[in-house]
Amino acid sequence: xxxxxxxxxxxxxxxxxxxxxxxxxxxxxxEVGYASPLFAxxxxxxxxxxxxxxxxxxxxxxxxxVDGGDxxxxxxxxxxxxxxxxxxxxxxxxxPAWVEEGEDKLPTFxxxxxxxxxxxxxxRGTPVISAVELKALRDQGQDVxxxxxxxxxxxxxxxxxxxxxxPGAELLLHFKDLVPSTKTKVVVSCAGLPRxxxxxxxxxxxxxxxxxxxLDDGTxxxxxxxxxxxxxxTATYHEATETARRFASEYGKSLSAKDGLTFVDRKTVxxxxxxxxxxxxxxxxxxxxxxxxxxxxxxxxxxxxxxxxVSYRTIAVRGARIVLIDDLLGSRARIVAHWLARRxxxxxxxxxxFGAEERAAA
Length: 362
Prior knowledge:
40% of the residues lie in helices and 15% in strands. The protein contains 17 helices and 15 strands. Helix 2 links the parallel strand 2 (21-25) and strand 3. Helix 6 (113-124) packs parallel to helix 10 (194-206), helix 9 (171-178) crosses helix 12 (242-255) and helix 10 crosses helix 12. The protein is globular and about 70 Å long. It starts with a strand and ends with a helix.
């Protein structure tokens, strides 16, 4: 081992000291799966040199690379230190050493998404409906709609038949177009639990008049009940109408009425970015297509619905300041802030008139 290696005890101390810290699991994505045992950001070794600056914007941040115990991290640390990473380290033995005594009492880099949302569910009493109950309502001809809050790519692969694809952060923006009647029962779905629970509770916290529930275990619960899923992009949201935007404005403000949100301007953000002792992320929570059309320099496309449950996939520096970027309506940013602030993140919102830029470019 080099002089840049740390043992399990040292990393445990660092995870609890409250200072800025980046932990990256550099194993292949297919090996890591949904989440590292550390719930750390997955950045495969072959992408480190090209993308580490994106995930860890300041090269002086204390950073730990974790591999599969094969020495990959040690070689990467040696190389990266030669290119300006002054406080980068390797975990001795990698993931195998970290979990050798079991994972039950180990600290994690981020709060596991399932643990967070089940706590929300239990505290708020979020209503739930089973696949069998949902099918029965449909068979009876009841007025019910299923909103699938995953990314459209996930929705396209398989979803509950008849469900409409509308990623979690888009719920309020498109709700009135998709659910014009307050008498319609709304069922929020995902692949399992996290995004469905947060989606349903978002609508409830915002005060929508409809009856809202989440689908127990999402698409997995549907197939476990012996029911077939549907494939393809069969029904998704479209550009929001003015009626929908007015609804999103009203209910977005209701959602965040007690959140104590901080709104900032670009000058403030530029000052934060230049701060030599604090990391600031500029996360654009609009859709990837919107980001591709126009975006602010230095910002990262980070679709809001994904940030709700798997923030560690983007936010690699614990203790960083998070600026959520949205259009002037701010509906997506309000939803993301509503939940990330409850997970301990320091959040600010920057609203920008992207429409003006797109009109000028046309």
